[in-house]
Structures are given as C-alpha cells and as structure tokens.
C-alpha cells in the first residue's frame, strides 16, 4: 500500500529534513540494535546514477566493504543512512550531491552535481577497537555523545558511573571516583581505564571486554563471573580533571608532583601492588629534568632505586639493572644501587659481575651481612660455571679427536702413509692443489687437538688443586652461610617500608 503524497524514493532521514538523503527499505532487518558512531560496519553495496548507470559495486568484486561509522571516511549520506540500518537490512539510499560528491563529482564515473543511489545490505558491525594491539579485546559502541573534544589523560581524576553485565545479568552498578591508572585500587578493571581515555565529558558507551582486560583467568567468584569470561559495561563519564602535563609546570611544581608520586608508590608497594608502585616511580622520572637541582636529583635517585626494587620482584631483572646503572650514575657509592644491581646480575646468571657489586657494598659497609653472604653465593655460582665449562671443553676435545681419527682416510690414501697411496695415472695441477689444501687442513686440525690436549692437562691440574683446597676448607660451614644468606634476604624483603625508604 502506497501512502498518498509519500516520496517513492523513500523517507527523508536528514536531521534538517531537507531532502538530502532519502531511504527506502527493500528488506527488513532483524533485532532492534543499530550501529553506533565509531563502530566498524560491514556492508555490500551497488552504486548507480539516477538513469540506472552502475558506477561501483562491492558485489561485483565479491568483497564486502568495511568502514568506521560517523568518522567522515565515507560520503555523509552513508554516515547518516547506515546508522539507521539493522543487521540483515537492505535499503536504497538516494543521495543528493551535497551529501555525496558535491558539485565536482568524481570523474570519470560520477559527473558534477550528480544525485546518486546506493543499494546497501547491512551484513554486521562491531564496536570500535580500543585494545592496544587492536585484537578486539576492548570494543566500544557509543550510546550517548559527549560534550566538546577534550578527553582524560593518564592520571586524570574521573567520576564515572558503571553498570557491569555478564550474560545480561547486572553484577555491578555504582558511581566511583579515581585517578586513571590507579583504578585497580577501587576495583575498576583495566579495559575501562583504557576506554576512558577516549571518552568525552557526558559520553556514555557500551564496552565489551575480553578476559585479559576484565577479570582474567581468576574470574570474579563473589559475583558469579567464571574464569576467562567476556563481560559488558555501560560507562558514563560524568566529569574529569586532567593531570597536569610536565611541560606545563615550572621546576618547583614538577618536584611537588614527583613527591606526590613517590608517596603513592611507597603506599602501593607496602600493600603489595608492585606494578602500580612501579608506575608511580616511572612517572617521577617522566616529570623531572636531567638538569634539576639537588632536591630533583635526590628524587630521581630514589625513583631509580625503588623502580629497581619493583622490577626485581617482578623478575624483570635486565630493566632492574638498567635502573641501578642510572642510580649509580647519580651516586656511584650508593649501597642500595650496588646491592640491587648485584641481585639483578645474579638473577641474570652473571655471578662475576654480581660479586663485584656485593664486594663494593662490603667495602662501603663491612657490617652488611646480606652482601657478605651474597659474595659466598656468587663464589658458588662461579665455581659451578667453571665445572660446566670444563665439561664442555672435555666434550669438545673428544669430539674433535674422534673426527680426526675418522678423517685420516682420504681419496689419496692414508695420511700416515701406513697404506699405499692410491696410484694415479698422472698428476695435474688440480690434484696437486687439492693435496696441498688437504695437508693444510689436517695441520690446522692437529694444531687444534694439541691445544685442546694442553687445555685438558691444565684443567686436570686445576681440578686436583681444587680438591686439595676443598679438603681443608670446611664445606659444611659454607652451606650454613648460604642458608643464612637466603633467610636474611627474605627477612629484608618482608619489610617493604624499609626497602623503599630512599
């Protein structure tokens, strides 16, 4: 049934109702959902002029077309029309030139000032991917647009309303305030914090979060969320106050901000949130200049030392050593810097380097039992490494000796001449050259074997000497010292307040 007076080309769907975009539904879609601004939509389309001349078709290419809705990546008629389509819907959009390619057109296929028609099939859409690696871990669909253009930065104080759902069941509904980057302290998952960096004041969005950005493999048993669950959140950014950027502050303000980060870092370390503590110490280094005053230099020193402590606990030993290097560049005789670098080297299986650092600590503080004990541990590691090296050399010696025995026979006979040389009807230059090369190769191998024999004899002498030394050294006492060192190290780590008091 045709409504009297209705436009056969469809309904005007422009906001101004100026007839710029007309839509006629050819096939109804399913469900009630519509795509949101920022969603990645997938469609098939065929574009024609008003006289029916086809100028483009994704179906002819057998390749659906994807674009981000509402971002200006397509003609404005598409951003308007596709936003009204349901999944599976097919419609015809009639697009006036000012909503298409304008007065210029798009030669040679689209003439100037042309009104175009597009038959569009909505295949599917998904939210805007905000995950750091663009792997679909955080998908955002806008529900309500926000105000202006400004968005929060890392560290901004925000007030948000959260409604969390799992399989359509609400498990969380609250308003909460926190600093972005520290949301874990108030139970806000990482995916929400990442998404908030893209929201404007007053904006409301639907987030779909995969486990790695929500509750992970632990789940949230107290609200019946199983391990590795994908959850949804409706997030409304009610207000925010940006954290000052370092470039906008004078030196005094930078130092004040750095002191605040240090206090936060110490607080988080004491309660066992090592990752968040590490983040606070890293921020200190971002804020302070290399050419700062004494107070600034002391804060940087403390930040490097405490960052190293955090990284050691996170088993990121290479980075821990680098922070110790930077701390020691500021204060070359800093005991904590030397001690923690030694710990890092030990974890990296570099006992000789570690030993130097622990011995440096002992020279500065002879009463430091932990450093003394670690020197003993380093000696044990060095001794163990030497044993492994001896085994490697011994195996290499046997391998090359066996290879030499197997290669004595050549196509010219036995090199030790215990077997007659294979008679040749004649000798030419190629044969003579081959014999010379073979002889040189054999000489090199024999020289190497002689070197290995000498090395083996030296190692046997070293082994006998070590056996004599150990027979009177009291190895049982060394074991007691090692066990005591481990115990004291654990005791020191049990006092985080002391560890970060830099």
Automatic annotation (TrEMBL):
Catalytic reaction equation(s):
[protein]-peptidylproline (omega=180) = [protein]-peptidylproline (omega=0)
Top-tier EC class = isomerase
Q: Which UniProt keywords apply?
A: Isomerase, Repeat, Rotamase, TPR repeat
**UniProt xrefs under InterPro entries:** FKBP4/5/8-like, PPIase_dom_sf, PPIase_FKBP_dom, TPR-like_helical_dom_sf, TPR_rpt
Q: Where is the composition biased (Basic and acidic residues)?
A: 457-467
Region called Disordered, residue ranges: 457-502
PROSITE patterns per the record?
Answer: FKBP_PPIASE (PS50059), TPR (PS50005)
- The reply to whether Isomerase figures as a keyword in the UniProt entry is yes
Identify a single GO molecular function assigned to this protein: peptidyl-prolyl cis-trans isomerase activity
Pfam families for this protein:
FKBP_C (PF00254), TPR_8 (PF13181)
User: Any idea where the PPIase FKBP-type domain is?
Assistant: 38-126, 155-241
Q: Note the PANTHER family from the entry.
A: PEPTIDYLPROLYL ISOMERASE (PTHR46512)
Q: What is this protein called?
A: peptidylprolyl isomerase
Q: Which organism is it from?
A: Megalurothrips usitatus
């Amino acid at each position: 049934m045709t409504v009297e007076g209705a436009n056969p080309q469809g309904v005007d769907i422009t906001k101004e109702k100026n007839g710029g975009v007309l839509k006629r539904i050819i096939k109804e879609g399913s469900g009630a959902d519509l795509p949101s601004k920022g969603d990645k939509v997938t469609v098939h389309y065929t574009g024609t002029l008003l006289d029916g001349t086809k100028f483009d078709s994704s179906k002819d290419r057998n390749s659906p077309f994807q674009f981000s809705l509402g971002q200006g990546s397509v003609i404005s008629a598409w951003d308007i029309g596709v936003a009204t389509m349901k999944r599976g819907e097919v419609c015809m959009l009639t697009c006036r030139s000012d909503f298409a390619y304008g007065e210029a057109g798009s030669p040679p296929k689209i003439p100037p000032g042309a009104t175009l028609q597009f038959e569009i099939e909505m295949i599917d859409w998904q939210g805007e991917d905000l995950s750091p690696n663009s792997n679909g871990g955080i998908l955002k669909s806008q529900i309500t647009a926000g105000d202006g253009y400004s968005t929060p930065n890392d560290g901004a104080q925000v007030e948000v309303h959260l409604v969390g759902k799992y399989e359509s069941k609400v498990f969380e509904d609250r308003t909460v305030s926190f600093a972005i980057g520290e949301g874990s302290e108030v139970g806000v998952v990482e995916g929400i914090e990442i998404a908030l960096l893209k929201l404007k004041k007053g904006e409301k969005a639907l987030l779909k979060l995969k486990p790695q950005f929500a509750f992970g493999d632990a789940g949230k048993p107290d609200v019946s969320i199983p391990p590795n669950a994908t959850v949804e959140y409706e997030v409304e950014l009610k207000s925010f106050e940006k954290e000052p950027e370092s470039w906008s502050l004078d030196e005094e303000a930078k130092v004040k901000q750095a002191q605040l980060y240090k206090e936060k870092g110490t607080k988080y370390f004491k309660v066992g949130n090592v990752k968040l503590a590490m983040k606070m110490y890293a921020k200190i280094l971002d804020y302070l200049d290399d050419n700062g005053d004494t107070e600034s230099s002391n804060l940087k020193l403390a930040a490097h030392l405490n960052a190293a402590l955090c990284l050691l606990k996170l088993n990121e030993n290479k980075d821990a050593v680098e922070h110790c290097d930077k701390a020691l560049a500021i204060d070359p005789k800093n005991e904590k810097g030397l001690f923690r670098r030694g710990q890092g080297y030990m974890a990296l299986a570099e006992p000789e380097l570690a030993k130097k650092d622990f011995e440096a600590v002992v020279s500065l503080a002879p009463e430091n039992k932990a450093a003394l004990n670690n020197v003993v541990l380093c000696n044990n590691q060095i001794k163990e490494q030497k044993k492994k090296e001896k085994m490697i050399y011994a195996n290499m010696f046997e391998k090359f000796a066996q290879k030499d025995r197997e290669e004595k026979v050549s196509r010219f006979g036995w090199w030790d001449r215990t077997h007659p040389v294979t008679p040749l009807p004649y000798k030419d230059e190629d044969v003579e050259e081959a014999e010379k090369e073979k002889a040189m190769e054999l000489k090199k191998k024999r020289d190497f074997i002689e070197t290995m024999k000498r090395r083996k004899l030296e190692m046997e002498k070293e082994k006998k000497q070590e056996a004599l030394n150990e027979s009177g050294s009291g190895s049982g006492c060394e074991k007691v010292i090692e066990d005591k060192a481990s115990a004291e190290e654990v005791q020191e780590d049990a006092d985080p307040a002391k560890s970060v008091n830099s």
